[in-house]
Structure formats: structure tokens, C-alpha cells
Design goal:
Organism: Microbacterium psychrotolerans
CATH superfamily: SGNH hydrolase
Number of helices: 11
CATH topology: Rossmann fold
Strand order of the largest sheet: 2-1-3-4-5
Protein name: GDSL-type esterase/lipase family protein
Number of domains: 1
CATH class: Alpha Beta
Number of strands: 5
Distance between the termini: 12 Å
Order of helices and strands: EHHEHHEHHEHEHHHH
Strand content: 5-15%
Largest sheet: 5 strands, parallel
Helix content: 40-55%
CATH architecture: 3-Layer(aba) Sandwich
């Protein structure tokens, strides 16, 4: 991977992970920082995650994301589009979610982004009644998969892997509230991203500017 490659990560609190938004070099303490450590000097890594974001919130600040001039743009969004239905009675349909994210990717493509990495949102039910929430998330997960095909993006599947890890080790060890990962959970996400990215053809994503 040449030194000119810029990896930009856009998403919600899982991506944000406590970064200092006043410091453009701050990566937070989650999966983005782990990826940056793994790639070392092989790329410039920029974290554009903001906690609480839904797809429409990401759209409202998309110019700022594109201003980072990504060669490879990772978009990890969707769980808050599910969550707001249940904590704020503010649902987002899967159709609206898909249309919004498609618009973001189209704008990024027009801006010259070379390759997309789309991360599948996950949720691990940890309290009574939350299993039913998956009925809202599952169509959004399917939308992310369709968008990966449509935009020839690299897909990072997470839902099944995080769920299996939570079943094996206990949700408290991986995602105590079903969404926000522990250090072990963040490592799982970073490993899944790195494994998916390793399969990207060199010419498609790693040529740099």
C-alpha cells in the first residue's frame, strides 16, 4: 500500500470511539485506531465518526467527510437508524436508509473516491424484548449488502461474527449494551475490516493519488 493512500472512516459512535473532534489526527480508542496501528506507515488514516449519527446525519456533514480526500472510504452506519425507532419513536425505513446511503456513495464517487468499504451494522440483544429489534435492523443490513454490490464495494460482515463472539464469551465481554464494543469487540471489528480489505484488488483501492 503506497504512502499516498488515505483511508477515511465515516460513521457513528462505534467509529468515533471518543476521538477528539478538535484534533484532526485523533483516531479515538476503537477499531479505527487499531486499523491505523496495523497499516502503520502504509496509509494516512482519518476518523470522521460522530456518535449518534444516523444516515441522514451523516448526509448533513458529507462535505466534511469528502474534504478529507479519501482514496478508500469506509462507511459504517445503520444501528442508530434502528435505535431511534425504539428510544425516540423516530423510525427510518430500510428504503429511506438505503436511498440516503446510496446518495452519499454517488456523491463520493463523483468526488473521485476510488473504492468503498461498507461495514454491516450489528446488534446483540441484551435485554428482554430487544430480539424483536432485529426485525428493524435486518432489512438495513440487507440494504448495506445490496449497496456493496451496486457500488462494487468491499463488504465487512459483522453481525453474525459479533453475535457468535458474544454468545461464546458473554455480551459483557464484547458489546455490553449490544452496540458499543469493548476493547475485545473493537479488535474483532478491526480484524474483520483488515481481512476484508486484504481481498481488495491492488489496482482498485491502493494506487493512491
Amino acid at each position: 500500500m503506497p504512502l499516498s493512500t488515505t483511508l477515511v472512516f465515516a460513521g457513528d459512535s462505534i467509529t468515533d470511539s471518543g476521538r477528539d473532534r478538535d484534533d484532526a489526527a485523533s483516531l479515538g480508542d476503537g477499531y479505527v485506531a487499531l486499523i491505523a496501528h496495523a497499516v502503520g506507515d502504509g496509509a494516512t488514516v482519518i476518523n470522521k465518526g460522530i456518535g449518534g449519527d444516523r444516515a441522514v446525519d451523516l448526509a448533513a456533514r458529507w462535505d466534511d467527510v469528502l474534504a478529507a480526500q479519501p482514496d478508500v472510504l469506509t462507511v459504517y452506519i445503520g444501528v442508530n437508524d434502528m435505535w431511534r425507532r425504539f428510544d425516540s419513536d423516530d423510525p427510518t425505513s430500510a428504503e429511506d436508509f438505503e436511498a440516503t446511503v446510496a446518495g452519499l456513495l454517488e456523491a463520493a464517487r463523483e468526488a473521485g473516491v476510488e473504492h468503498f468499504v461498507l461495514v454491516e451494522p450489528f446488534f446483540v440483544p441484551v435485554s428482554d424484548g430487544q430480539a424483536a429489534w432485529l426485525e428493524d435492523l435486518d432489512p438495513k443490513r440487507a440494504a448495506v449488502r445490496r449497496l456493496a454490490e451496486r457500488f462494487d464495494a468491499t463488504l465487512v460482515p459483522l453481525h453474525d461474527g459479533v453475535g457468535a463472539a458474544a454468545a461464546a464469551h458473554g455480551a459483557a465481554a464484547i458489546v455490553p449494551d449490544g452496540v458499543h464494543p469493548t476493547a475485545q469487540g473493537a479488535a474483532l471489528i478491526a480484524d474483520a475490516w483488515l481481512a476484508a480489505y486484504a481481498s481488495v484488488p491492488v489496482g482498485a483501492a491502493r494506487t493512491g493519488k
